[in-house]
């Protein structure tokens, strides 16, 4: 993260004695990226964070095999048809992925067990409902429209308040704000579409008592369940620039032009060989002769996966796309508005229509995306031919 925060109790200097009320030492834990050479935080535990009692391999409960997008085709998947299943960790239905990123969808009402992803950062978009995110850093209350970004190695769990649906993005590395939004010292610049005030981190420590506590751990080797001697939620304070945070998509400030602006203006985060973009309600392009709708485009270096989260998709009318849909437009395919959409929106502007209402999350990858079993189970087989009607 680009700025420093302190929560709870910490000593005046790093790596000095910090004693509990009974005279014993708190156990210091450094959570750091890129081999001590990037962002980090120091956490102070009541118990040793290294004390484990048992380790056992865990077999995956969901299908995770990926299938190449062959024959090459644009795709439409209807997440609305996926069942409520598991929890916000184990219930993820794999939609698409490659060596850099994996995207899933989950609908659940069940609290998750404690979980640590040691393969990379996660970005979880809450599509509907409310959920309590608990971690060693504290609590974040999240709801519809929130991105929750979770650093690699963070022990956490999800506690839904009723039914929750989410679109999850699991990276092979770190997810950060785009560099072009930040000064060389890490402060958000004035042209950035959001800033530090829009980010919500834990406000106070979360202390939970417990012994022999299992934690599901994902590594590149697979899944393991470690049993800790004491509950990992025993941190009395932490400080640093690395921590989970939430950002609501409605706090994204769209960048607009006289004529239609390309997707980079919607970029919200970046990861290894992929970007995350937020398409939010905004004024339509306002040149008197503008075509206020996306032009046909072929992003030759990227596959584009779009989760339609809310609003009205004028450019896609007639395609079958609706709230909860996911489209995949691969490199090698030119895509754009549905037939008739351009003239329809020009006429709508003549009638006084001046804003879009669309809300969507897009992931552009710089390596091809393969297809997951959840996506293939809810695919609309007619979508690829809708431009030829």
Automatic annotation (TrEMBL):
Segments forming domain Homogentisate 1,2-dioxygenase C-terminal: 274-387
Pfam families cross-referenced by the UniProt entry: HgmA_C (PF04209), HgmA_N (PF20510)
InterPro entries: HgmA_C, HgmA_N, Homogentis_dOase, RmlC-like_jellyroll, RmlC_Cupin_sf
Residues in coiled coil: none
Gene3D superfamilies: Jelly Rolls
Required cofactor names: Fe cation
Keywords: Dioxygenase, Iron, Metal-binding, Oxidoreductase
Domain Homogentisate 1,2-dioxygenase N-terminal: 23-248
Domain of life: Bacteria
Annotated SUPFAM superfamilies: RmlC-like cupins
Family to which the UniProt record says this protein belongs: Belongs to the homogentisate dioxygenase family.
The protein's name: Homogentisate 1,2-dioxygenase
Lineage: Bacteria, Bacillati, Actinomycetota, Actinomycetes, Streptosporangiales
